[in-house]
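Page 37, top half.
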Amino acid sequence: MSAEATNPEAAPTDVAVRRRGRARIDLRRLGRAALLNATAGPAPRDRLPDAIGHVAEAHRAHHPEADLTVLGRAYVLAESSHRGQFRKSGEAYITHPLAVTLILAELGAETTTLTASLLHDTVEDTEVTLDQVRREFGDEVAYLVDGVTKVEKIDYGAAAEPETFRKMLVATGSDVRVMSIKLADRLHNMRTLGVMRPEKQARIAKVTRDVLIPLAERLGVQALKTELEDLVFAILHPEEYETTRALIAGNPGATDALGSVAEQVTAVLREADIGAEVLVRPRHFVSVHRVRLKRGDLRGCDFGRLLVLVAEDADCYAVLGELHTCFTPVISEFKDFIAAPKFNLYQSLHTAIAAPDGAVAEVLIRTHRMHKVAEAGVVALGNPHVGQEPDAAVPQTDDGERVDPTRPGWLSRLLDWQQSAPDPDTFWTSLRADLAEDDEITVFRADGSAPGTISLPAGASCVDAAYAQHGEGAHACLGARVNGRLAPLSTVLGDGDTVQLLLAQDTVSGPSPEWLDHARTPAARIAITGWLTAHPESPAAPAAPTDPRPQVSVAADRRSGAELHADLDGEPPAAVRPAGCCTPVPPDEITGFRVRGGSVTVHRARCSAADAMRGLGREPVTVRWGDTPQGRVTLVAESFGRPGLLADLTEAIAAFGAAVVSANVEPPSEQRVRHTYTLHLPDVAGLTVLMKAMRDVPGVYDVSRARHAGGLG
């Protein structure tokens, strides 16, 4: 499948050490073999066509009882309808649907998906009609074919790509198998992209990087994601790709060190009587590149990881216990994605161990079932409607669209806000921003109404929760209770928090432009922007004076410590204050914007909230720092939990002469602790010195400026 793909070499023992195991699916080798037979033509009725022999073999490996006759009929229709058509590479066109179907078969897709995959281009590119597909293969196949077919021959111009992906998202929400076929389709197109002009290669690769790869990640289809990453890497970053390729090629025995650790792990697990497979899993090109940027010079163990496969969930923890007992564990590398699965269904234990010779190896521990889901994601789920009564109606939305019961929460959110996007550019920008979010949190509704939970991206605030729960009704939100305590709408929510939104009884209230500083979700940002655009007369966005007046320079109130000045034409502002989202301090480059009540909020120049304000057409205000050296800043310290840590950090802050305005210590998570301090500095010029002093405290691995602090200044 990717640079990680290797061939299996079975071992007879219960604990098998494989330097080349089935950790990745090798589709390229099988794909080439299948394509050699692509023009063989239809076979007699009593047997399958030779051209889909590899597809049938791969399908039977996952589904031994599958009926292959429908695949034979689908291939005959696809081959006859595409006959005479050729790809830009010169190959017969049938090689494309064959390769796409083989990719899905190796991932374990069920028969209906493979049938639709063979036919996915027939309705668009041949004289075959959707009704013909429905008559011959049933409603399910026809639905999937329709979902991946560009039915409308409309020239969208610059909006073509956004409109295509908007349709794809809607189809995916109806049945995730649609996106599975589309991802496999893009993978094969990326493999054969070399025949196109360089500029077109770059355009397709950028779309793949920005949208398709994050979608593959969110759908859990790692086997597709990793190869797409490598193909995009080669096109968009050819020099770095060549450096990485040469690095791997120049270290052919690099994984020998990892193999040695694998043998030691094998012996430990055998002695503990734990049945397991221990595989050496080489990293793919992009993974090697990332590790090299992070660690510099690479050692043998850095070129791969160990994968331990067991039968039951309990065995995973048994393996972890043996490894941490018999080797030196690297505690900071431990993550438990079994007890708390990732949003894309991924489950595994992650750890790292140090062998007696000092080699450090990363280890993944999972069951065989977890491994299948980790590689194939939603493809491994099969038909989302299986198990329903034969005559049962497929669930539908109010507008008649069918609903996939397996679709994840993040996809439901995308479907909700994409309907509100006012134009393709807004949709496209919001889609890319949403897909860039890697983590998800779940918060609970205090009112007990169904559904009882709200899924949000990590870093979301009460503003996001309000719009996720009430839609446009959140315009009247006044505040919130978080875990029973009153909190500002800017409060950043944590996983497991309980939220109660407080709404005004009148219908006149509207959002403040400052809400954009705290909104992370596209649904919230689009709704807020829409209201502000529709209400330009609102006090939230005062009109500029029509009569030219002398420039007024106004200093900020001193609650924030540092002195700020705003240069305005017209009446002076009510106040000039730093924004809580980025807490600027001298000598940060800054910009300002007028907000509700005539105040000026000052942001760091590169703050995302400032970019959003510019995107709304808001005119920036010229602001500058005064001569006062003092200032207020919010710092976040990430650390490993240990006794006395809080006292040591406080001592480091006090030694600098800074005063603690407020402090918050989050509950430990995976042995890690996050401390948030709002500090009053006597001289902000020494901020970098203070941050270094905090990083030097034992156990602290990072100190950074807060990006989403709420209610400051």
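Page 37, bottom half:
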Amino acid sequence: MSVNIKDWNVEDQGFWESTGKKIANRNLWSSIPALLLAFSVWIMWGVLIKYMKDFGFNFGMTHGLVAGSDEYINALKEVNNLYYTLPAIAGLAGATLRLPNSFLISLGGGRNVVFITTALLLIPAIGTGIALSDVNSPYMFFAIMALLSGLGGGNFSSSMSNISFFFPKKAQGYALGMNAGLGNLGVAVMQKTIPFIVTFSLFGGTAGAIATAKGAPFEGMQNAAWIWVPLIVLASLAAFFGMNNVSTGTPSMPDTAKGVSKTLYMILLGLVAAGIGAFMLIGIPWDSFGMKDAAMWIVLPMVIVITVLLMKYGTTGDIKENLNKQFSILGDKHNWIMTIIYTMTFGSFIGFSMVFPKLAQDIFVYSNPLDPEWVNPNAPNIMLWAFLGPMFGALVRPIGGILADKVNSGAKITMWSTIFQIIAALTVAYYVVQARGSETPESYWWPFFGAFMVLFLTTGIGNGSTFRSIPYIFSKEKAGPVLGWTAAIAAYGAFIIPNVFGQQVTAGTPEYALYGFAVYYFLCLILNWWYYQGPKREVDNP
């Protein structure tokens, strides 16, 4: 069958059974590994920075300083803060790139978009492999690679949009649940793969020698990035030869060259906006203005505005006309309410996935605030368990939707998941305080870990229930753009949460970050009740 399918009517049962189902499933199973790898490349910085500290990547900032001196210790503290900025930059770029990705399928065609967006992942994978091969690689090189790894974060929006056109309404839940759930598993797969692959050397580099000298039980740091390269090549080829463009998703179907060029142009706009945001975050001396901790709250809205303006005024013809129709949702109050609530769920899931390994390391491994290089000999093996949180959060996502269907209300399930999310966040904060005040912090590892797993579970369930509510709140014409917009903004959790924890860990009060998140969750609980459950609700338990 042709790559471009013009006659595509999956709501016709005869067509679906005879032709559509086979093609749809082939496209789905080509899409899933591509999205899984996209998440792996995007979120890998949450694990990389944990190992970068073990391997001694100090960005040259300790060169010439006497070990143990105040200047040396202060430099290590600043390096530790810079570690947190790398997943934050990746999070900023990934979320920003979701905005143009939301509109790519209608412009470039599903097969063309998935192929080129997957192939682009080779750039940050190869670049990061090169950076990790030299322990003296500068911070700016890492920052650029973190920015480009955001390409993987953006792919979610175009991937989900594409799959929705291949399946009839009765199978949408299955298709989107499989694509999103197994795609999100890329976080867990990555967190399990990297700790194994860094234990031996496949490619040469100076990092291994440094790690060996420090007594670290591994030497292949560069493998953490190179391992994705052959897998990305295979997934790109599978998309190119195994996927299709369908008329329902792309009415004005372009050829491969035009589809790819339109896709690249829209992604370039997103990268420009994300690049401006990253420069503002790390290139402006915010501390000189006494605004270091406030920087991200200034950068974030500016990046969103810049992205929207670039898409609105940096495009012409059919692209501009298509985007203007989608932007009508920005005047709808409920779009903003659901964006805030969905950010509580997916934003927390992806942000905690980014930060959990490094946060646990700072609390249980490098647990002496007076000596940033001291290692707790009884510390738990964090990476043996870290992958479970993202795995649980991804696997329970469909359960949130199923439970919402059972009680005929996503708002009800969101309410209960939010209540338990608040309790879990405060419980994690309690054990953070206990661990940091103890000479044996490892004794609090399991209750800390258990509470964090509940936090992941609640974000996953709320993720599914919130998505279920949107089609019941908005018209059919608005529901799709709202889903894309909320998914894009919520992804900024991968930017906010690492930044907040980086600031609070530096200040010695990581529990404050969790208190702040609990307050935000409570506000979301009130919003959900006021507009969708309370006596003055505007929509009845959607």
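Margin note: The radius of gyration is 23 Å.
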